[in-house]
Fold:
Amino acid sequence: MRNVFIAGATGWAGSELAKGIVKSENLRLVGALSRSHAGTNLAEFLKVESDFIPVYGNIENALNEIKADVMIDYTNPSVAKHNIITALNKKINVVVGTSGLTEADYLEIEKVALSNNCSVLAVGNFALTMVLLQKFAEMAAKYIPDFEIIDYAHEDKVDAPSGTVRELAYRLTQVRESQIHVPESEFKGLKETRGARMSGVQVHAVRLPGYVISVETLFGLKDERLTIRHDSGSSALPYVKGAILALEKVGSFKGLKRGLDSVMDF
Ligand SMILES: NC(=O)c1ccc[n+]([C@@H]2O[C@H](COP(=O)([O-])OP(=O)(O)OC[C@H]3O[C@@H](n4cnc5c(N)ncnc54)[C@H](OP(=O)(O)O)[C@@H]3O)[C@@H](O)[C@H]2O)c1
Structure:
């Protein structure tokens, strides 16, 4: 049985996962982080049958008091790195669900993980259908040198691009960088309209009411094209199974792994 601590357990994604962990056979939820519910019992907040699950408002106090084997962070990018590094320095393995951490953040996190002999599994999107999109897009990038990504989300999403798209861009450019036909020096007009170049691929973020979370990976060849698209619904349920799998698998390696498929059998 693994003891799990959730940073962000009262949020949209964290609370759905917390309910999933309470029902799971291999994981035990031993504590949670949330400033607004500090000092309360998470089981009451979740309305689930369980032993007392203490909620803390401060990560250092929490991890000093709780015996956790693994922490999952589902907070926001402004505090996630601090939570992750605090956990690693206490020899606690980490699953990262929070989006918005940069490549530089991950380089630092990997160093801290290795120096503590711990593991970090960072997953921009735990949904199975998104994991499949990543795999299919990587296969397509092997054969098609021109591709761009469109990241769709609701109007109040604070980070852009999403963690899902950051991870996808990183992974596609491990296959190859997308070709550029008109270099920036020759570009005429408003260059921002071409999107941002991220890890070697052009990324466009759309933030509008009526959208939840979707990703389109567009591949173009002369006279033919391929679109691989993923759409999430409005509940956090699709992320629960994948996050539980990540919590069970983290610790089976040292250092940093990115993407759920890195611990899945494909
Ligand atoms: N990887 C995936 O598959 C996946 C899926 C869904 C969401 N996400 C990402 O997960 C993150 C959380 O999303 P969400 O929609 O669940 O957010 P949310 O509903 O705003 O929840 C955030 C949680 O973090 C806590 N929190 C925020 N700031 C904190 C701080 N400074 N100290 C301690 N706790 C803090 C909040 O509690 P208090 O405000 O009470 O502190 C709350 O419990 C986002 O980055 C989102 O993009 C990833």
